[in-house]
Specification:
six-stranded mixed beta sheet; single chain; alpha/beta; 121 residues; globular; Transcription Regulator spoIIAA
Length: 121
């Protein structure tokens, strides 16, 4: 088994997970996106551990905007990852659009937070 979360919509945000990919499209501009991203990321952690995945890709190339509360949801996801026993942790590869300057600006602090587990493609 791998990641399997059907597409969901919350405002202007579409998000889903399949295989080893987590995909976002639209904008994460809600006041408190942790209301829906928190449970989503908890399910990602559980499914990735259960499946024994050694890496997942978070594709934000189709994400047009993310506010600071959305970035915080990604931070909380990484805190959850880092709280797992070492043998259950996995790499997180961010697929970004390098022509969109804020993509790298959002991911750079996440790489600093978890340098052994966060990569950027």
């Amino acid at each position: 088994m791998a990641l399997d979360i059907p597409a969901k919509f919350k405002g202007k945000t579409e998000y889903w997970a399949t295989g080893g990919q987590i995909l976002f499209r639209g904008e994460i501009d809600q006041t408190d996106p942790s209301e829906f991203l928190g449970p989503f990321f908890k399910t990602i952690l559980a499914q990735a551990v259960e499946s024994g995945l050694d890496a997942v890709e978070i594709d934000i190339r189709q994400l047009g905007f993310i506010n600071s509360s959305g970035v915080k949801a990604f931070v909380v996801f990484l805190v959850g990852l880092l709280s797992l026993p070492t043998e259950k942790r996995f790499l997180v590869n961010f697929a970004i659009n390098k022509e969109v300057t804020w993509h790298n600006a959002v991911v750079a602090p996440l790489r600093i937070m978890a340098p052994n587990f966060v990569r950027v493609n």
